[in-house]
Amino acid sequence: MIRRAAVGILLLAAVAVAIWWFVPRETVRPAPVAGPTAAAMPGIPSDAFEMTVESVHDGDTLRARVAAPNAVVTDTESTRVRLIGLDTPEISPDLECWGTEATTSLTDLLPPGATLWAVADQEVRDQYGRHLLYLWTADGTFVNAQLIAQGDGGVMVFAPNTLHEALFRALEAEASAAGRGLWGAC
Length: 186
Description:
alpha+beta
């Protein structure tokens, strides 16, 4: 009787090994590498200067007034600001897909009257006379990067203003893959 039990146990063990050996198993894939996180976003640089938002024109352009003249913005008059490194859909003359949402996103981050912190890259003005700037909210949110991460715009870089290009491209790839914002709607 003990022999029969031992043989039965051995047969069950052999069947279990055979099943384990011959039945296909799921391939375990490594977890995807996480994209840039909030921790990877640069904070407000030490050479940033303060501005106050006057109005938002669209998802990548606004008007602001500098608190004190500096090497980038030399007077306290109203200044047109174009965010460096991204392009959002237009709202005029024709409304493009996601134009309203991108404008709303910028307005939510930097409403009229809000304080922002700004830094230029190599080229300070564009062909239209707008100041080309990287912007941060008063609490340290990197606005240019946040808009790309949310899918409110795509990367548009013009040399020599390439300081954050690698970050912007990584954020755009992540937003596109996730179908965020314009990547899922347009």
